[in-house]
Every structure is written in C-alpha cells, then in structure tokens.
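REVIEWER CHECKLIST
Item 1: Sequence provided? yes
Item 2: Single chain? yes
Item 3: Sequence as submitted:
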Amino acid sequence: MDLDVFVSAHRAEWDRLDALLRRRRRLTGPETDELVTLYQRTATHLSLIQSIAPDPQLTGRLTQLVARARSAVVGTRRASWRDVTRFLTEGFPAAVYRARHWWIPTALLSTAVAAALGWWIGTHPEVQASIAAPDELRELTRPGGQYETYYSSHPAASFAAQVWTNNAQAAAMCLVLGVFLGLPVLWILFQNMLNLGVGAGLMSSAGRLDTFLGLVLPHGLLELTAVFVAAGTGLRLGWTVIDPGPRSRRTALAEEGRAAIAMAIGLALVLFVSGAIEGFVTPSGLPTWARITIGVSAELAFLAYVQVLGGRAARAGDTGDVEAAERSATVPTAA
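Item 4: Structure as written out by the authors:
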C-alpha cells in the first residue's frame, strides 16, 4: 500500500470527522449518521495502517481521532452492578474454563514435580543436610515446631491479609509476565513447587507427613489451583506471542491480555477465600478431618463454578474479554 496515496484519498474524511467532533452545537440527524459512518471508516483505516504500513505520526493522529469519535458515539460508560454480576457469572468463569487445556496439565505436571522433589528430599539425608543443619531441621519438623506454629504466628486477620497479598502478587506476575514467552512463569511455578516439595520432604523424613498434609490441604487446594490457573493462562499468553493463530499478533495479544488482566481480578477473589481459610481454619482447633473437609469443599465449589457457569458462558461465545462494544475496531485477517 502506498501510504501517501492512501492519505491523499482519505484525508478529507478524517478532516470532516474532526470538524464534526469540534462542533459546539448539537448535531443534526444526518450529521450524526455521518459521524458514525466516518468513525467506522476511520477505525478501519487505522487498522489497515497499523497492520500494513505503520507510521507513528499518522497512527497517533488517527488513534486520537478514533478515540474522540468513539467517545462521542458510544458516550461515557460507567461501571455498574450489572457489570460486576456479568464478570462473576460469565466473564471470569468463562476465561478460566477456556484456559483449562493449559492450567489442568500445568497443575498435574507441577504436582508431580512437587511430589518428586518431596520424595527426593525425604529419602536422601545428604540433600536434607544441604538445606539446613540437623538442629535446624529438628526445630522445623518437631511437634510444635516452626512448620506447625507458622500458621498461628500472627493474628488470624493480619496473617490472612498478608497471605492473600503475597499470593495475589504471585498470580498477577504469572499472568503479566507470560507475555515473555512464558519463561518467567515457569520459574515462579518451580519456586512454588520447590517450597512445597521441601516442606513435604522434610516432614516426611521426620515421619510427620500426615501432619504436614493436614496443615496444607485445607487452604492449599484452592490456593494452588488459583496459582495453576494463573500460570496456565500466562503460558497461553506466551504461546500467543509465538502462534497467534488466524488473528494478527497485535489483535491476539490484545484479546488474550485483556482476558488475563480480568482473570487477575477474579483470582484475587479466589485467593482471598483461600487466605481466609489459611488464616482462620488452618490454625484453628478443629479436627484435621474437619479442616480438610472445608478445604475440599471450597475446591469443589470453585471447580463446579468454573465447569457450570464458565462452560455455559464459553459455549455462548464469552471469552472473558470485554464486551464487543468496548473493544477497538479491527479488520479481518486472512487465515
């Protein structure tokens, strides 16, 4: 495409759109129709220029023009409780459901890695010696030791808030850093599995694996599921950089990126629940079976929520992205 010829052919339309947007008086009916038509044409022109012959100065001008026209056509939209309800019942569960082919294998493989690390550490004294001195290991694993007192070392409310903040940050990092081909996500995931494997291995070597699982499972099931969802989504975002499919790479990254950011908000709510369980249920005086039952119930409730609501929304075409009216205009691309 010859950019100079393209600009000459359409400059009058852009100038006319700019003039209509600058009108102080109320537009007439025909002028309003003309504004909408010119907005649609200019949005298409912008997409063509961005994909075929990007020019920073022209792109900047048309981007501002399209944004102003969009604001005039659509109007300022405020978030409402309807948006919150739609996000919780459709957008978020649909995004998690669509990403299941990434986060379920991630969960299975990560769990296997943590179990292998735990077995390796638990059955090799030389590995345990490289982690800490014998006295320190005994202090960690003894009845009433640091592994047990960790969950009651701070007031429940502040401990739950701290856990929630840390986990939400880790999930957000997995989602955001996935764009770097998923490599930072793999490192974050390995660090989490290493911590889990070290704890399981050391407690197993002391003959107290049942105690460790009784402390971890109540909150860990839901917490790790949220981390796996974030990691799987981050890996999918990284793969989108490599293979965007029939969409342009810019469009694919925009769509998947918006869905990932929205998922970060949803996962923060999920991690809030797991943090509350870790702060109030895990260190409580409830029997182990009762604490584990609460954790399993929370996990099953989340999985059912994703399967039922997310599956229904995904089959209806919801991708977890913003509504069509809120997206930037794009042009079709050849497969």
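Item 5: Key structural point noted by reviewer: The CA atoms of residues 46 and 59 lie 7 Å apart.
Item 6: Recommendation: ____
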